[in-house]
Amino acid sequence: MNFIKKYNIFKEKITYSDDRIDTGLGVTVRNFDFQSWPHFSQDLSDGKSAAILEHALSGPGAGDGGASGLSGVAAGGSIAPAEAPDELQNLLDMRDDIVAENLSFRYHLMLPAGVERAEDIILLFHGLNEKYWHKYFPWSARLVEQTGKAVLMFPIAFHMNRAPALWSDPHTMFGLSRARKQQYPSVVGSTLSNVALSTRLHNRPDRFIWSGLESYHDVIDLVQGIKNGLHPAIAPNAGIDFFSYSIGTFLGEILMMTNHNGWFSQAKYTSFCGGPVFNRLSPVSKFIMDSEACVALYSYFVEHLESHMRENKQ
Q1: Which among 38, 50, 55, 215 is most buried, taking Cβ atoms within 10 Å?
Q2: Which residues contact 229 (CB under 8 A, 6 or more apart)?
Q3: DSSP H helices in 49-203
């Protein structure tokens, strides 16, 4: 069966609502709940995020009362156009630590048909500004088929089903993109597909690293639960490998380099279309982010990060 046929079958059958989905294609999908740690302080909206970020990067790891479960920075003033709908404006101004969809969500685990508990897993990380796993279902099925391992598709913070549905509403996003183009006439690549992420990162570029930190600590908490024998479908001593795509490579690389508790010393790692250093990224795309957001990110992280951290030390 070719990719398109598998894609359509998986897209129709796999949902978040059912606990178990028999696909009929040699794999079973099981859904599990996950709770992200809301380690946030109102200080993050008071100009102190750089100092807190510095502490998070150098402090203790997840599960020990340190920087575990950090999520995106609470929004301060908004940079969204005045013409944006009030409902969307309020959402963009919302503190990231209270976005319910990001804190409590479900993830997919794809196993070989008939297997109830995986002895080995592959953690799969997706790309930036993605909202649906559809294209990854055939990828995951192929990995299951070729390796015999289960594939755990884990969503990055504020992506996939961890983002409010409004961010994917075509009518609302089209209106915001139109208003954004009016406010920034020279903007390149603003579309309904990327305007939510672009507006949020343009507003607060430090969200990029805070959401990455949250995702990192979520994975650490996930693996800790597996190691403690708390996962009903993954053995405590299961081998863990990685398959990452695009921006998911950053997450996978950091997990491998930090190698928390030596958990990933034997892990195999595959990166697909990922891996460039930050100042060599070219993310301007109608599917990823617009030029204004890209400039804000580059300015914050490549040109001024050290000065931000010096000026905001507590």
Answers
A1: 215
A2: 236
A3: 49-58, 86-93, 100-103, 136-147, 170-183, 195-203
- Give mean pLDDT, residues 173-184: 89
Among 197, 182, 188, residue whose Cα is nearest residue 291: 188
CA–CA separation, 252 vs 241, rounded Å?
Answer: 10
Residue 108 CB neighbours (<10 A): 24
Cα separation, 7 vs 10, in Å, equals: 5
Handedness of CA 45, 177, 134, 142 (dihedral sign): negative
Instruction: Specify the length of the chain in residues.
Output: 314
pLDDT tens-place string over residues 77-133:
344 444 555 655 666 667 788 889 999 999 999 999 999 999 999 999 999 999 999
What confidence score (pLDDT) does residue 98 get? 82
Rounded CA-CA distance 279/11 in Å is 36
Calculate the average pLDDT of the chain.
83
Task: Identify the DSSP state of 238.
Answer: E
**Sequential DSSP letters for 28-49:** EEEEEEEE------GGGGTT-H
163 within 8 A of 39, measured Cβ to Cβ = no
Alpha helices per DSSP H over 59-135: 86-93, 100-103
Strands of the sheet with 269-272, listed across from one edge? 20-22, 27-35, 104-112, 150-153, 118-125, 234-245, 269-272
Structure token digits, residue 87? 């409902």
DSSP β-ladder status, 269-272 and 234-245: parallel
The span from the CA of 264 to the CA of 253, in Å, is 11
Beta bridge pairs of residue 30: 20, 109
DSSP label at 94?
S
Which structure tokens are listed for 104? 């409590």
